[in-house]
């Protein structure tokens, strides 16, 4: 069992089957650098007071949550009133629908969480749901309330456990038409398309997130260490950046076909991946 604390405990329900489960965040925030605002003359961090215009600083126990129903007018709610809102989804995630694994547009996905059974007694039923989802290649949908709001939840197998991904509601997604309406519907020229397609095929491989590094965070960390070294605090770790600047990259692209063909030549040492259809033809 992980050392992290679960962010939600409740039941995963399929019809009459209810399984006690726990949710853990699948992502880490500590991998990135964070900064504080500092008062340069004193070297001390900036703090912010809660202030009411015309009144001045106020105590925390004088603050309520308010919904602005008209400009400058609010409905005030006590924390106890909000906590008293009864939602079944605060303790139970019921799978009410199943869809194909590729049917959900990626734009709807929000955050990912690991779902694990709370104890050994729950594992048998947990495995049944996990393996049934895997066998049918389906994703289970339901709703879950946590951290002050209710989410659409998508459940799918992940290793020996389950993955829960929260989804945006339809009204949270901007329509693409206003952004894309000015783009011509004309098709790309066939010769250019053929070269670009071949380049994509040559660069196609299995997804491996480990191949991608956060260069910006690495550069910031190196900058911080350089500053520390100048103060005699810590040895700096040098970083080399050989990537061309944006301006250099633009100047190198003289024409589209030339750039695509040059890219292909650079990839020439790599064998072109075989498509599934080609493999089937040879097998037959």
TrEMBL record:
GO molecular function, one term: double-stranded DNA binding
Chain segments carrying region Disordered: 233-252, 259-284
Residues covered by the Ku domain: 55-185
One GO BP: DNA recombination
Keywords: DNA damage, DNA recombination, DNA repair, DNA-binding
Source domain of life: Bacteria
Keyword 4Fe-4S assigned: no
Pfam families hit by this protein: Ku
HAMAP family named among the record's database cross-references: Prokaryotic_Ku
Subunit structure: Homodimer. Interacts with LigD.
Task of the protein: With LigD forms a non-homologous end joining (NHEJ) DNA repair enzyme, which repairs dsDNA breaks with reduced fidelity. Binds linear dsDNA with 5'- and 3'- overhangs but not closed circular dsDNA nor ssDNA. Recruits and stimulates the ligase activity of LigD.
Name the UniProt record assigns to this protein: Non-homologous end joining protein Ku
Annotated source species: Pelagibacterium lacus
